[in-house]
Design goal:
mainly alpha; two-stranded antiparallel ribbon; about 60% helix; binds NADPH dihydro-nicotinamide-adenine-dinucleotide phosphate
Length: about 425
């Protein structure tokens, strides 16, 4: 049975004033959270609790959009649209669609990333536009891209209304938030420009990296050097993003691409939430310069490497198994699995025999490794691991529901064999 997000609508329903209020509050909360963390880190001494020293006036001025932020974003977005079409790379096909057929996607995010980062580096080192200007325009950029995301989501709502009216729930706020269209394309063909696939990676994830470099430059301009903590945070995150684009075709089988409609939730998440909140560690480090001992830095990098190993190997084991269950070998042995009535098999060896989502655990441990160089003076640089823990626990619960719906009693049997969700012996 197919499970689109439309069929998994939250239990508080879709109609009436109650649902409208819930979705409106959710949208407001999401938007305010980004601003609040910016306020906390820049205008409230990296504290979440306002005090008499909080600079509310500076904050209210900093978040006003300006021509510079609009132009910078227009150029950045435009560059990535061009790279989507022209950067070197292969093409691949997505999963079989409900209505039949498959969509074609350009797998050129890797070259798009390195070309766009090189272009940014060139512009920076030519002194035409230095990266620290992005740090000084951080608030204006948040507002500019938020307005852009709201406008784009409105357009997506009408796009879905026209092309996939059966996805509409009838509640505008719900449809605006969750989206009304699975694969918006222009032109609406198998090879057209895919807005969701494009936004999932290109301007936001690579934008996160550019913002990290802007923080690094801001620290350099302020102190005349770059701290070891800053270097390892930027490098560990660069490695993560580079790995993502190196394996870009894997996102074609993720929940977001397969099941989620493209509305404000994904648009805002991709374009604002990810770049502006995931760079908080580097942001925090600009003015929190400390002497991180080399041995501590080494331990953190090793912890990051071990976490990456868990994340990558767990994902690879499932991927290899899904491609050919009978030929897959795991840790030197033929993969063990159980049959299900659907015909699809469930892996029982490797990390998938120890817990049901060790890939999530490795991913979360990396998030923690990126915050540790900030030490423990503020909770703000720990935003990402805290938020990500909630997201992954929720995602694990949702995935469990999807699998239960798909596999029925076979899933219960699998859960008996592999009782742990995220941490063997604990949870
Ligand atoms: P998974 O890669 O864990 O995929 C879950 C699916 O795998 C299930 O629905 C089921 O699908 C299949 N499956 C489950 N158990 C087994 C088994 N024992 N054997 C074979 N197949 C099984 O989940 P996601 O797509 O959510 O995540 C992919 C990666 O992306 C993860 O590493 C995650 O950490 C990362 N991620 C990162 C995010 C971020 O913001 N940084 C956000 C979300 C994810 P089926 O049976 O239909 O094949």
């Amino acid at each position: 049975m197919s499970t689109t997000n439309y069929e998994r609508i939250p239990s508080y329903g879709q109609h009436g004033l109650g649902a409208t209020l819930v979705y409106s509050m959710m949208i407001l909360f999401l938007l305010l959270t980004t601003y609040y963390f910016y306020f906390a880190i820049e205008f409230n001494a990296a504290s979440l609790i306002p005090s008499e020293n909080s600079d509310w006036q500076g904050f209210s001025q900093a978040i006003l959009p300006n021509w510079e932020s609009a132009l910078v974003y227009l150029l950045w977005f435009g560059l990535h649209v061009l790279l989507y079409y022209f950067a070197p790379g292969k093409k691949d096909q997505g999963i079989e669609l409900e209505k039949g057929g498959r969509l074609t996607y350009p797998i050129n995010g890797n070259s798009a990333m390195w070309i766009s980062l090189s272009a940014v580096g060139l512009i920076h080192f030519s002194d035409f536009y230095t990266l620290d200007r992005l740090y000084h325009n951080f608030g204006a950029l948040i507002t500019t891209i938020t307005l852009f995301s709201l406008a784009k989501s409105l357009w997506l709502y009408f796009y879905g209304k026209r092309t996939e009216p059966r996805h509409l729930s009838g509640n505008f706020m719900r449809d605006f938030w969750m989206g009304t269209v699975l694969n918006p394309r222009w032109p609406d063909t198998k090879t057209g420009f895919d807005f969701k696939y494009f936004c999932e990676g290109r301007p936001g994830l690579i934008g996160w990296m550019v913002l990290n470099f802007a923080m690094l430059d801001a620290q350099y301009k302020a102190y005349g050097f770059v701290s070891l903590a800053m270097i390892i945070v930027v490098l560990m995150q660069l490695f993560y993003i580079a790995h993502y684009f190196h394996n870009e075709r894997f996102i074609l089988t993720t929940m977001d691409i397969k099941h989620e409609n493209f509305g404000l939730m994904l648009t805002y998440g991709d374009l604002v939430w990810v770049p502006f909140l995931y760079c908080l560690q580097a942001y925090y480090l600009i003015h929190h310069v400390h002497d991180l001992p080399l041995w501590v830095a080494t331990l953190i990098v090793l912890f990051n490497a071990a976490s990456f190993y868990l994340f990558k190997v767990a994902n690879d084991q499932k991927d290899e198994f899904r491609r050919d269950p009978d030929k897959a070998t795991i840790w030197g042995e033929k993969a063990r699995y159980m049959e299900t009535k659907t015909g699809s098999k469930l892996l029982l060896s490797g990390f998938w025999g120890k817990a049901r989502h060790l890939n999530y655990t490795g991913d979360w441990m990396m998030a923690l490794a990126w915050s540790l160089p900030c030490l423990f003076g503020s909770v703000v640089p720990y935003f990402y691991p805290i938020y990500f823990a909630i997201l992954l626990i929720h995602r694990d619960i949702r995935d469990n529901e999807i699998c239960k719906e798909k596999y029925g009693e076979d899933w219960d049997r699998y859960c008996e064999k592999v009782p742990w969700r995220l941490i063997p012996g604990v949870y």
